[in-house]
């Protein structure tokens, strides 16, 4: 742990006491000095530094704007799509990709796993990706295909994508817990859970397990958001679509799964749907930052793009 303006000896004492940044940031000076052997004055300095590090100290709106402008964005490889998102997929928040099968959720995830590795001026974060795969859909062949077309060093690019297969929700929790160490160690700047919904939907069946399911979903969502903020990384999760039984009231025949409690957690919610041939439409439908808007993009054999790949055009 490194804290700006804090002596290394002090951070060592904090580490010995098993205190992480978040615990420090939400402690009072009295609590901290009783947990670790530091005096009250030092504890106050440490708490302030930890809050600054996490970006949670009280600040003016002007400072907040400055803080926000420094946040990284990963390009989707489609300028139109990037525009509706305010520059791409942002760090320090949870982005949900919802859509029916074949709508392009996983393809976009593959593209982001490569794009995060790009230099900042090319739309990347010069970082690596961690892909939590719950349905065994990670396809190295597809990633190789996209990487070669985009002129990545293919072997290097694949070596920068870490994959964890989550067999069930319990396993998903244990992988997420391990990420505290993996993220800084492997310079992870993008964390993906594809699909976030599937295990929750298949393991917690029936009305009597709904509360338990919601609690688990909220717990993991909180953990993911905490990682995003703490390590300044982008978190992207995919969600399925279910039929909206109240279609006649709300006018939409389908909606993302996982219910109302979940619906408030992602800072950005994107709905993907198929259009003609290889074209897709992305709709940003619940963002605290950007208006609701749609973008047209293409899923081609070379990954995402603004224009159709010639052989896809009439497909
Ligand atoms: P589920 O995981 O089933 O819910 O769907 P998804 O939204 O993750 O779908 P995915 O991103 O895997 O998109 C699959 C679609 O991408 C296919 O139906 C194709 O239309 C398209 N696709 C995949 N590979 C290629 C390719 O090599 N060339 C082209 N043109 N399209 C591709
Ligand atoms: Mg998929």
Describe the structure.
With 315 residues, the protein is an alpha/beta fold. The chain folds into two domains: 8-60, 5' to 3' exonuclease, C-terminal subdomain (DNA polymerase, domain 1), CATH 1.10.150.20; 71-305, P-loop containing nucleotide triphosphate hydrolases (Rossmann fold), CATH 3.40.50.300. The chain is built from 14 helices and 13 strands. The chain has helices at residues 8-16, 21-25, 29-35, 40-54, 61-69, 79-84, 105-115, 140-149, 154-159, 169-185, 197-203, 210-230, 247-250, 259-263; strands spanning 73-74, 89-90, 94-99, 128-133, 161-165, 188-194, 234-239, 241-243, 254-256, 268-274, 279-287, 293-300, 303-305. The strands form three sheets. A nine-stranded mixed β-sheet has the order 5-4-6-7-3-10-11-12-13, with helices on both faces. Strands 1-2 form a two-stranded antiparallel sheet. Strands 8-9 form a two-stranded antiparallel sheet. Strand 11 and strand 12 form a beta hairpin. Helix 3 packs across helix 4, helix 7 (105-115) packs across helix 8 (140-149) and helix 10 (169-185) packs parallel to helix 12. The radius of gyration is 21 Å and the shape is globular. The termini are far apart. The mean pLDDT is 91. Bound molecules: guanosine-5'-triphosphate and magnesium ion.
């Amino acid at each position: 742990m490194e804290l700006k303006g804090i002596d290394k000896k002090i951070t060592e004492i904090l580490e010995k006491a098993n205190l992480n940044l978040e615990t420090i940031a939400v402690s009072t000076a009295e609590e901290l000095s009783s947990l670790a052997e530091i005096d009250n004055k030092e504890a106050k300095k440490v708490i302030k530094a930890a809050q600054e590090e996490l970006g949670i100290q009280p600040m003016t709106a002007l400072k907040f704007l400055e803080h926000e402008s420094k946040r990284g964005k990963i390009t989707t490889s489609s300028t139109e799509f990037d525009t509706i998102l305010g520059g791409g997929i942002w760090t320090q928040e949870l982005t949900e990709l919802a859509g029916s099968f074949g709508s392009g959720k996983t393809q976009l995830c593959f593209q982001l796993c490569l794009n995060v590795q790009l230099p900042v001026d090319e739309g990347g974060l010069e970082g690596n990706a961690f892909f939590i795969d719950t349905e065994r859909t990670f396809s190295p062949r597809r990633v190789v295909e996209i990487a070669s077309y985009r002129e990545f060093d293919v072997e290097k690019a694949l070596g920068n994508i870490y994959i964890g297969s989550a067999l069930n929700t319990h396993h998903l929790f244990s992988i997420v817990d391990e990420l505290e160490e993996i993220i800084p160690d492997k310079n992870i700047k993008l964390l993906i859970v594809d699909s976030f919904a599937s295990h929750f939907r298949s393991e917690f069946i029936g009305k009597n397990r709904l509360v338990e399911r919601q609690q688990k979903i909220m717990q993991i969502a909180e953990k993911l958001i905490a990682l995003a903020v703490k390590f300044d990384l982008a978190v992207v999760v995919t969600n399925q679509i279910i039929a909206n039984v109240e279609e006649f009231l709300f006018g939409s025949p389908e909606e993302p799964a996982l219910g109302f409690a979940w619906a408030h957690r992602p800072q950005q919610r994107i709905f993907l749907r198929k259009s003609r041939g290889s074209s897709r439409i992305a709709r940003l439908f619940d963002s605290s930052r950007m208006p609701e808007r749609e973008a047209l993009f293409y899923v081609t054999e070379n990954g995402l793009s603004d224009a159709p790949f010639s052989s896809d055009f009439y497909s």
